[in-house]
Design goal:
OAH/OAS sulfhydrylase, alpha/beta, seven-stranded mixed beta sheet, PyrdxlP-dep_Trfase_small, 427 residues, 17 helices, transferase, PyrdxlP-dep_Trfase
Length: 427
């Protein structure tokens, strides 16, 4: 099936980018466990390495199993191309290193996955990629953080771990005003709930380890190029706008006007830096996409039921889930995610850190681990784990005090999840 077909989401989730194997007729995308690919001629090999011709050379830069995954996610997100990569963390790393050089600046939301925040601080300390953090829910403050030296804006569509939905279109307007790309981590929403490119995003990325893979089996990431940003002649982005002398002087924005960022991320990020995605993980993630449209409604419905129950529980001080009516972020939920704002949120437990950790230790169905977006429900204490490297005052400002736990609601029966929480909170 053509990757640019106009079918509905469920059909694309099953078919986009894939077709029966031309040699064997196998209908499921084969798992290509090879690290190298034979060339037809020396001239063909030279053309592939020089980017004059598409094709496979060495699996670090691409694999046929991963290529189907790339086409499928790019189609679901509405992008022109994608790059499957070793993890969501490496996806963000490659995006930043492709866009910025030492001394450049960018603005990032201050409410992000803890690993993203840690990576950004480390890149500033060691590589002089200067980040300015701002609250994405305060648009005036966010706009004020952008200067003439800013080269990109980075946000999450749905914030990890609070579950807040960001006004993507408004942030995109800020980016367009300064002619800089907007990068959106769409991991918590998936393209089933939000397609950030439709609201002005230029680059979208995911941790495949979460809802897209969906079963807690995969470590992987993917970068999607919207193909809309005009990189041509823009000296701020030399990898996109200036000649690559070691590739015969090719200028990616001229050679690949609609896919330039994806090509740069592959050539620099994959060939040079090396975080390739294993074909086995690509196969598992590809299989996960085929049920994404079935799993996400169940995740959301369960999250809504659990959040509503906890909001009235006497042992709970606060529930951050913006799918609840009356939550200050609820109007953005109605605009961007009418089917619900995902399945990850935080709660504040009365009794402080001791009570929060007691809750975690006493649950029987919820698993205590650091992932999110699995079929099973998960819980963790962010202040001492996923977000422990944040300065304490920033953790508090982000709503991650010692009394907070993060929930990722799975596909179990909601009544059983509620009963498990009740028995644990009773202690």
């Amino acid at each position: 099936m053509s990757s640019d077909c106009r079918n509905h989401f469920a059909t694309l989730a099953v078919h986009a980018g894939a077709s029966p194997d031309p040699v064997t007729g196998a209908r499921v995308t084969p798992l290509y466990l090879t690290n190298g690919f034979a060339f037809e001629t020396p001239e063909a090999a030279a053309d592939i390495f020089a980017l004059r011709k598409s094709g496979y050379s060495y699996a670090r830069g691409g694999n046929p199993t991963g290529a189907v995954l790339e086409k499928r996610i790019a189609t679901l997100e509405g992008g022109t191309n994608a790059v499957a990569i070793a993890s969501g963390q490496s996806a963000l790393l490659v995006i930043l290193l492709t866009l910025l050089k030492s001394g450049d600046e960018y603005v990032s939301a201050n409410r992000l996955f803890g690993g993203s925040l840690g990576l950004m601080r480390r890149l500033e300390e060691r590589h002089d990629l200067k980040v300015t953090f701002a609250n994405p829910l305060d648009l005036d403050a966010f706009a004020a953080a952008v200067t003439e030296r800013t080269r990109a804006i980075v946000i999450e569509s749905i914030v990890n771990p609070s579950g807040d939905v960001v006004d993507i279109a408004a942030v995109a307007d800020i980016a367009k005003k300064h002619n800089i790309p907007l990068v959106v981590d769409n991991t918590l929403a998936t393209p089933y709930l939000i397609r950030p490119i439709e609201y002005g995003a230029d680059i979208v990325f995911h941790s495949l380890s979460k809802f897209i893979g969906g079963h807690g089996q995969v470590i992987g990431g993917i970068i999607v190029d919207a193909g809309k940003f005009n990189w041509a002649g823009d000296a701020r982005y030399p990898l996109l706008s200036e000649p690559w002398e070691d590739y015969g002087g090719i200028v990616l924005s001229e050679k690949f006007p609609q896919t330039a960022f994806g090509v740069a991320a592959r050539v620099y990020g994959m060939r040079d830096l090396g975080p390739g995605l294993s074909p086995f993980n690509a196969f598992l993630a590809l299989t996960g996409t085929e049920t994404l449209h079935l799993r996400m409604p169940r995740h959301v419905a369960n999250a809504q039921a659990v959040a509503r129950h906890l909001a009235s529980h006497p042992a709970i001080a606060e529930v951050s889930y913006p799918g609840l009516e009356g939550h200050p972020n609820h109007p953005l939920v109605q605009r961007y995610t009418p089917e619900g704002p995902g399945a990850v949120f935080t709660v504040r437990v009365k009794g402080g850190e001791t009570a929060a950790k007691h809750l975690i230790s006493t649950l029987k169905i919820f698993s205590h681990l650091a992932n999110i977006g699995e079929t099973r429900s998960l819980i963790i204490h962010p202040a001492t784990t996923t977000h422990k490297n944040m300065p304490p005052e920033e953790r508090i400002a982000a709503g991650l005090g010692p009394d907070v736990v993060r929930l990722s609601i799975g596909l179990e029966d909601a009544a059983d999840l509620i009963a498990d929480l009740d028995q644990a909170l009773a202690g």
